[in-house]
Amino acid sequence: MRPPVILLLLGFLLPASQTFAFKANDFKTCAQSGFCRRGRALSARALAAGSSWRFPYSIDPSSILLAPDQASFTASVKSALYPEVNFGLDVRLHDDGVVRVRMDETGGLRKRYDEAANWALVAPPSISRDIVWKVGKGTVHAVYGEKKNIEVVVEFDPLRVTLLRDGVEQVVLNDRGLLHMEHFRTKDDTKPVTIQDGEGEAQTTLQLNNRAWFEGEEQDAWWEETWSSWTDSKPKGPESLSLDVTFPNHRHVYGIPQHATNLSLPTTTGPDAGYTDPYRLYNSDVFEYLVSSPVSLYGSVPLMHAHNAKSTVAIFNAVGSDTWIDVGRTESGTETHWISESGILDVFLLPGPTPTDVFAQYTRLTGTAPLPAHWALGYHQCRWNYVSSDDVRSVQRRLDDENMPVDAFWLDIEYSEGHKYFIWDKKNFPDPVEMIKDVEALERRMVIIVDPHLKRDSSYPVYKAASDLESLVKPKSGSGEYEGWCWPGSSSWVDFFNPKSWDMWVSFFKTKSVDGRWSWTESTENVGIWNDMNEPSVFNGPEISMPRDNVHYGGWEHRDVHNINGMLFTNQTYNALMHRSDPPKRPFVLTRSFYAGSQRFGAMWTGDNVGTWEHMAIGIKMVLANGLGGFGFGGSDVGGFFGNPDPEMLVRWYAVGAFSPFFRAHAHIDSKRREPYLLDEPYKSMLRDVLRLRYAMLPVWYTAFREMSATGIPILRPQYVVFPEDSEGFAIDDQFYVGSSGLLVKPVTTRGATSASVYLSDPQIYYDYFTFHTYPAPAKKVARGRTVTVPAALHQIPLLIRGGSIVPTRERPRRSSALMRNDPFTLRVALSSDGSAAGEIYLDDGEGYGYTNGEFVWRQFGAETKKGGWGKGEELKIWSKDWARQGGSNDVVVYNPANAFANSVSGVRMERVIVVGVGSRPTVVSVNGGSTVEWEWQGGIGYGATTESKAGVLVIRDPAVGIASDWQIAVVF
Ligand code: NOJ
């Protein structure tokens, strides 16, 4: 985190025009990290050895133990390098076909950290009792799947695990023989060993350095590691884990967020490598990050998807320590190499076979994002800092004066006295509860920052309580409190791995003190919380974080849990907010750091970006990648955190924000004020229009959130997710679909643009959302997609509706989303090239948990032309009916369409139905087989058009039908 200029000025003067640059020296490269160096050297040795490379790890066939029901098996694994060391393998198949492979050192000097999956997983997945493992000669294998076309083969010698579909290899573990679990040893471990030669026959007794062919000549950084001015004491010695994962038939891999890079990951090895270092997963406070880099950023999700036109598969490597991942390309596939500092091998193979299946498989493991509070989908106004209660009130007033909708006002760290979170700086915020209530009076919310570092001041009740409970992270000695430097100066960190801290954290967020414990009485039950700096960021620590030899609950070193640490903080904040009221309201928590499973606890943002066009563009890819990693509720700081974007950039950036699941403007303390009302015309009106567009589309966003919360499918869907068979779309990451709505957007991220090229995969008609200009389906069925040019001057957003979609909106401008609660709806019916359309809407009270008991409205819209033409007497029908899909463990509860929420909105109507692609003037429009309604036809071409032109549009006014009721509109020609 870059300190404010005021702090820098104490040391030296900044040049008049600030430059922003990634501080490469603050972070290690692979070559500067002992275990990564060892891992990469291992793969270099294997490459050099070619086919003569020996794989040391093998299964002892006599040790295979099938579970009584044959649904899983365990076995002993031996390493030819260290025959005296034992490893245990455990392989199981889940009900949904996911394969879990675990390997741990058994009976060793110490225990390896084996709890990463416990934190990531929602519940222990159920093992399939229908799938039976069979022990064969040299393998254990299982065949499964509806068509019995999936097979997992575990080979004994060398140990190798292969997942096949239809006889085609999908994923192979240890295909290249890089598997290596550095066992715990003592410094003088030089005992002779026995090793098998390549044929598995001759026995040779070797000394330690005879393992050099595999482990290298030196004990490189085994027992201590110095980097920059820090020394890592490494009390446990070497314990890293190396695993190669090959996708022999997939040339595109995605995921492993968070990196500022393309969605389809560039390679890091081989002659044409995109980067020279591996991708790194080590949660770090990297401000002003590079826009194309494998460097680790704030969050880590060790999940990688591999995709080709016939299949998507994935692997989830549940490890919480520093992890580097090399990606290389072969002629037909992709080779990856995962090198982790510590932990056990705990890998899940997700068999797909479609992207949608992989999302379901992954979120069945780590959970889906809960449905957020509805207000959280509105516009968030933030800055470091709104400096006083009156400042907050004035920003609210000025947005209102300009009729600019907003749902949340944020307070950064300067609200607190001396950066003691929860404690108000009463000089500037003399009346915090009144201020919050002034915001809430207009049905908006405040979001206030609470960081994980606590000022070491015994008069600070929060620190005092945590210290008294001995629930702070310990230094390497294992006793006392670790002390580091952060915003408040000398600080300590709550150890959220310690269950004692959980109850304490709950008590802090209560708005009334319970049992005399300190709690945040100067707050309300509606305040949302921003958890920042939770990598954790430590200004004077190695790589701006904690020393790896710090000690957490259970005696685990920080190195073991580093990437999980940030998630536990948001987990507990989320939990605390849940306990704040009875009945609970949906908590809102924003996190900077995250791990697999963090999606269960709120939203994320992409950290300290810079106000440049490149950062605007990369933010889109990062949010897309995060969605693939299960964490779809994300966004980037609109406007860029650092710098002073000019009005053109700001207008474009608001359009990016309006099409991000999380839409927040934020700015560094040294940047100029840039609230939307400060812009001159015409920019100010453009921002107002963009904000209103977001609000008009809230029904689309909320419906997409529902789907994500039920199925794990991300809200922003990249091209390959929607069209998995179209290889032309596999590398596209600058346009995306919003949920299942059929809306396709390509935000403009370059200066001076007047048009944008949009790629369309499918032979379907598309319409411009605003002008109804048509982009017809190709006349003949073609194998490939096409690129169309869409107008994109500054006041325009390239936004298309795919033919066949029905999009619900609310178009009355309001000041906040809550004020739209009873507003009528508009439906845009975009006819497909065969004259039909479908869509849906999901609504609930947006705040409580009634929806989990069936309190919601979930409707399906449809449209169909009777004979597919406009001839006399022909008919177009449009209808709304209750969504029949009900039940299912990973979907919405069974519900009663006449529930209390549905009844409460029974008076909310459809004020307009706009049918796009109507090629001739109707004669009559009637509702529910009876009364005729007002309509207007704006002439243009129909859905079957073959040339670009303006579509004919039928606008049906106030058909007097309700959003929560069944209806049918008949249009007769
Ligand atoms: C770092 C965060 O990334 C940034 O958004 C915030 O404004 C500062 N910390 C100050 O809290």
From TrEMBL:
Q: Name one GO cellular component term.
A: glucosidase II complex
**Where in this chain does the record put each Glycoside hydrolase family 31 N-terminal domain?**
89-326
Q: Which residues form a coiled coil?
A: none
Boundaries of each Glycoside hydrolase family 31 TIM barrel domain copy? 370-704
Q: Where are the transmembrane segments?
A: none
Provide an example Pfam family for this protein. Answer: Glyco_hydro_31_3rd
Q: Show the InterPro entries listed in the entry.
A: Gal_mutarotase_sf_dom (IPR011013), GH (IPR017853), Glyco_hydro_31_AS (IPR030458), Glyco_hydro_31_C (IPR048395), Glyco_hydro_31_N_dom (IPR025887), Glyco_hydro_31_TIM (IPR000322), Glyco_hydro_b (IPR013780)
CDD domains registered for this protein in UniProt: GH31_GANC_GANAB_alpha (cd06603), GH31_N (cd14752)
What are the subcellular locations of this protein?
Endoplasmic reticulum
Which controlled-vocabulary keywords does the entry list?
Answer: Endoplasmic reticulum, Glycoprotein, Glycosidase, Hydrolase, Signal
| Residues covered by the Glycosyl hydrolase family 31 C-terminal domain | 712-807
Metabolic or biological pathway, per its Swiss-Prot or TrEMBL entry: Glycan metabolism; N-glycan metabolism
Show which residues constitute the signal peptide: 1-21
Example GO BP: N-glycan processing
Which GO terms label this protein's molecular function in UniProt? alpha-glucosidase activity; carbohydrate binding
Q: Hydrolase among the record's keywords?
A: yes
Question: So which domain of life are we looking at?
Answer: Eukaryota
Similarity comment text for this entry: Belongs to the glycosyl hydrolase 31 family.
Q: What is this protein called?
A: Glucosidase II subunit alpha
- Which organism does this sequence originate in? Pisolithus microcarpus 441
